UniProtKB/TrEMBL annotation:
It is found in: Cytoplasm, Cytoskeleton. Residues 75-169 form the Ras-associating domain. This is Ras association domain family member 1. CDD domains: RA_RASSF1 (cd17218), SARAH_RASSF1 (cd21890). Its main location: cytoplasm. InterPro entries: RA_dom, RASSF1-6, RASSF1_RA, SARAH_dom, Ubiquitin-like_domsf. Pfam families: Nore1-SARAH, RA. Keywords: Cytoplasm, Cytoskeleton, Metal-binding, Microtubule, Phosphoprotein, Zinc, Zinc-finger. One of its GO terms (biological process) is Ras protein signal transduction. GO terms for cellular component: microtubule; nucleus. Residues 171-218 form the SARAH domain. It comes from Mustela putorius furo (European domestic ferret).
Length: 221
């Protein structure tokens, strides 16, 4: 992946209206864009969640499924205790947003949909494009407007798609997590280590058994 800058030209009202007509004529679903009387417009953006670390949710609630997030069930109260879990790597969410909705507001909306109580600053929204066999990524600034980018790029997911990722490019800043979160991460690492060790022991036990069977099958001398 390589960073790249997208050009985002300013459009006149007539150009916006024409772009929306072209956009709607190219989609095969009911996720249309609509022009409002005040000159703004509404539409849908699809965001893929590609998080490699667990997220925190209220411990009094079970981890939300994709169905829960889709219908907005399980609206929470004040958070006192937290638990952590991994969101599915293929989690995708459609959001209905305004043209003036900012990237930071999209992140906050996604976290609410999945009942995530982590600080939104831990996450970032990226735009992704495929060009000539190459994949390009760019992190959106807080004030950029994803629906405007969607309109300019058209409906093609190869031309532009949105991805939610952790807001870092290097080592994990463990100081940004609370003590309960850190303890929970240690428990997760321990379970992963135990499972990995079990798989290794099982593999070598199987190999040892096959070698012993081969030795017993070989004639003496």
């Amino acid at each position: 992946d390589e960073p790249v800058e997208w050009e985002t030209p300013d459009l006149s009202q007539a150009e916006v209206e024409q772009k929306i007509k072209e956009y709607n004529s190219q989609i095969n679903s009911n996720l249309f864009m609509s022009l409002n009387k005040d000159g703004s417009y509404t539409g849908f953006i699809k965001v893929q969640l590609k998080l490699v670390r667990p997220v925190s949710v209220p411990s009094s609630k079970k981890p939300p499924s994709l169905q829960d997030a889709r219908w907005g069930t399980g609206r929470g109260t004040a958070v006192r205790r937290r638990t952590s879990f991994y969101l599915p790597k293929d989690a995708v969410k459609h959001l209905h947003v305004l043209s003036r909705t900012r990237a930071r507001e999209v992140i906050e909306a996604l976290l609410r949909k999945f009942l995530v109580v982590d600080d939104p600053r831990k996450f970032a929204l990226f735009e992704r494009a495929e060009r000539h066999g190459q994949v390009y990524l760019r992190k959106l600034s807080d004030d950029e407007q994803p629906l405007r980018l969607r309109l300019l790029a058209g409906p093609s997911e190869k031309a532009l798609s949105f991805v939610l990722k952790e807001n870092d490019s290097g080592e994990v800043n463990w100081d940004a997590f609370s003590m309960p979160e850190l303890h929970n991460f240690l428990r997760i690492l321990q379970r992963e280590e135990e499972e990995h060790l079990r798989q290794i022991l099982q593999k070598y036990s199987y190999c040892r058994q096959k070698i012993q069977e081969a030795l017993h099958a070989c004639p003496l001398g």
